[in-house]
Description:
The complex is a heterodimer of chains A (369) and B (279).
Chain A (H helix, E strand, L loop, with lengths): L12 E10 L2 E11 L4 E5 L6 H9 L6 E6 L2 E2 L10 E4 L11 H11 L4 H14 L15 H13 L5 E5 L7 H18 L2 E6 L2 H7 L2 E6 L2 E6 L1 H6 L4 H6 L4 E11 L2 E6 L4 E6 L9 E6 L5 E3 L7 E12 L3 E8 L4 E7 L14 E6 L4 E4 L2
Parallel strand pairs in A: 3-8, 3-9, 6-7, 7-8
Antiparallel strand pairs in A: 1-2, 1-4, 4-5, 9-10, 11-12, 11-14, 12-13, 14-20, 15-19, 16-17, 16-19, 17-18
Helix pairs in contact in A: 2-3, 2-4, 3-4
Chain B lengths: L1 H29 L15 H8 L1 H34 L6 H13 L2 H19 L7 H26 L2 H9 L4 H30 L2 H6 L7 H10 L4 H41 L3
Helix pairs in contact in B: 1-11, 2-11, 3-6, 3-8, 3-10, 4-6, 6-8, 7-8
Amino acid sequence: MTKxxxxxxxxxxxxxxxxxxxxxxxxxDGVSLDIYRKELFCxxxxxxxxxxxxxxxxxxxxxxxxxxxxxxxxDITEAPPYxxxxxxxxxxxxxxxxxxxxxxxxxxxxQDGVARVExxxxxxxALELVQLGPLAKRRPHQLxxxxxxxxxxxxxxxxxxxxxxxxxxxxxLDKKLREHTQFELMNIQEEVGITFIxxxxxxxxAMSLSTRIAVMxxxxxxxxxxxxxxxxxxxxxxxxxFIGSINFFDGKVARSEEGELTVxxxxxxxxxxxxxxxxxxxxxxVSVAVRPEKIVISRDPLDLPNSVRGKVRDLGYLGxxxxxxxxxxxxxxxxxxxxxxxxxxxxEVDWDxxxxxxxxxxxxxxxxE
Amino acid sequence: MRRRNWFLxxxxxxxxxxxxxxxxxxxxxxxxESRLVTVWSGFSTxxxxxxxxxxxxxxxxxxxxxxxxxNATFAVAxxxxxxxxxxxxxxxxxxxxxxxxxAAPLVMPEVITGLSLLLLFVTLEAAVGWPSxxxxxxxxxxxxxxSMAYVAVIVQSRLSTMDASxxxxxxxxxxxxxxxxxxxxxxxxxxxxxxxxxxxxTLSLDDLVIASFxxxxxxxxxxxxxxxxxxxxxxxxxxxxxxIIVGVVTLAVIVSGWLMIRSERxxxxxxxxxxxxxx
Lengths: 369, 279
């Protein structure tokens, strides 16, 4: 099992109630987090959620208003950036424009007073790792975006930091290159065994890169978990909505037995069944959330515990999948996505068709927030 | 269509004539044989020889160059610090006042700057005995006070367009703040410093009003000497001097333009090459 699941594993980086205020505005509002060795941890959130401020506090560019930060047992809350065993890869890469690739990478080692022979060896090694050996003598403006990004990465890795912070590492690359670089990043992380913390606003990037994700909202952590946990068991409407798309049905708990809840949804005029281990009082307000791809769409009645009827209002053909917007009898719109297993000419469901939607009790989650 | 072209063309000619006609006639008459500036009597380089034999002019020119160089150097040092304070230290107490005061010398009438500096120097001498009398020192100080404002503005605008994360990256990689300034910030803003130095140099070389206020006996800059000579009637050797200055300035502009075009072309080539072999 993965390390961060072991109960006795000591956290490598620990944030305790970290707060950062700018005047009256709390950019980071009481964040506590444990991150373990060799994790590739993602801070995910929209703009202004405080993820970048949190990263800058880890790097030492901002001082927390309250709270402590511990790295590998040592309190680093007040340490200046040049004394932390942490390096950061900036979104703009922040390469030194007046230095060659080689000097850029060597800069950090020079500051540490590493012997010249050693510097040369380690710089060559780092450039080899990111496959930039032949371009060592170039200046940053003579490089393409992808190459610059790799120089920035090598410049951090060559110092062998305990922790590497990456601020939107892929945002400046075009889509094709981004996919490729993403896997490269993961391979490099595995190879060097350094703990990575990545800040991103791109949920797909976070899902495919990371061991765990912290979803942030208005300076606070909404949820921490593995990509699967976050996607399959969102704890709040915010997380559920932020990662992927989802349908909500608001109702009240009618029955709770043997790990299955029955929720009455007045809008729908019927009960929904959800598998859940949560103990909820009868009559409490809840939302039942179902992902579009978990819903089966069919023209024939479905033999599933949850089933509703509706009419196809919208159909978006995305190549591999189609996205339907189905209007229920009460007027609510439900998003459904289905893999296009047949040629589009033989499509089973089309515009304005009367359809049945159904899903299993395990496919939905109950949200109270 | 044709009429409009003619109009534009004549406007262009007139504009150029207006700007460069006087300078051209000055250059032509600097090669005049005659002592009378307005009467052409034949080609000669006699006034150039005369100019170099005139110790007053040579001394004044050397003095002006010296003051300009010292002034430019100090102005760059102080102006850079001021620009850095405005661009980098975020909000500090009295920042708005400080910013406004940096810009004030740019808009202050020279007469007022000169007069107030003169009063300052006189009061200082009476109070602490320094600067004793007025001369080269007071002119240099006066020039520094107004040219550092120009340097501060140039440095500040360069710093505000510079990506601050480059400095943060250097800090992050283990360089201490003063080292970041020396190894990263300074080299990156070096072109702005050179531009500021040249501007401060030119401003000092050019200044007549402030220098006249704060100068004392025995310290006459080139503009002061030329101005006093012209008051007694325009003499042909002043024409020769002006021609030399115009020549030097033209040469400097051409050389710097050529250097700029060359580096721009090289940059473009590099970018093309980088795009061509991107991987």
